[in-house]
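Ex. 9. Protein: HTH merR-type domain-containing protein.
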Amino acid sequence: MASSTSSRGKASSPSSPKPEAGAPADEHGEEELLSIGELAKRARVSPRTIRYYEELGILPVPVRTAGGTRRYPRAYIFYVEGALLLKDMGFTLEEIGDLGRWALDRTSVASRRTQALLQGKVALLEHRIRVLNRLHDLIVEATRGGRSRKPRPAPELLRLLGEEAQSPNTEH
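Predicted C-alpha cells for HTH merR-type domain-containing protein:
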C-alpha cells in the first residue's frame, strides 16, 4: 500500500509503527514526523548512523514522502537510544539487529539463536553485577581507611577492576 503524504511532512502507512498514546500531534491530530536530521540530532547520533541502523534492521523502515524523504515518528528516538544502550552493554550491532527484528515482528517466539544470545547476555550481566557489587563494597571499605580486621582491600580491588575490564570480551 502507498503511504499518504501532505506537503507538511505528515505521512501514514499501515506498516509504520503506530504512534504512542500521548505522542505530540499537530492541530489535525496527526503525529508530527521527524526528518532524518531531526531524529539524529534528538538521538545524539549522525544521520549516517540512522541509515545504518535501518540497514541492520535495528530500526523499522520509516515512511517516506512522495519525494522519497524519510519521515520518522518520535518513538524512533527510543529505538536509537535503546540500541545505543544495548551497544554499551556489550551487544554487537548484529546482535542488536537480531533483537530488533524479533522485537518488531511481535508475532513470533524468539528463535533459538536469539534465546541463546539473550541467555548468554543475562549470564554476562549477572557476572558483571556480582563483580560491581563486590567492587562497590571494596571501595566503600577502602574509603573508611581500611580499619577493618579483614586483609587490606587494595589487592582484591585491583583484581576485580581487571576482571571487570575483561568481562565485556567474555563470550558465553
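Check your answer against this statement. Residues 1-23 have pLDDT under 50 and may be disordered.
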